[in-house]
Write a structure and sequence with these properties.
The chain is mainly α. The protein has a single domain, classed as Methane Monooxygenase Hydroxylase, Chain G, domain 1 (Up-down Bundle). The chain is about 70% helix and about 10% strand. The protein has three helices and two strands. Strands 1-2 form a two-stranded antiparallel ribbon. A hairpin with a 3-residue loop joins strand 1 and strand 2. The chain is elongated. About 5% of the residues have low confidence.
Length: about 110
Amino acid sequence: MSEKTPEQRECCGCHKTKARSEEEVRRLVNRLSRIEGQIRGIRGMLERDAYCPDILAQAAAANAALNAFSRELLSSHIRSCVVNDVRAGNDEIVDELLATLQKMMK
């Protein structure tokens, strides 16, 4: 087994973690906060008996926002974790990345 990079370390031996910069965390949390607001808005529309196509349009916008969040996180993962592990000789990270992409494409 290859040695973990500084950005990845075992926590309790059960899963990997990643140290993120404050800026990255702030960006991702801001995106999630906006998505939460969108979801609350959709729930409110439903509770106010809004017209179905209006609700569906907002649901599509929330889905697009969540996809954008996932793309940003995936990009960060590839640029840091994947690159560092490949450079360290941990080729298993490629299989992990492929499995992650398969899950994302369902």
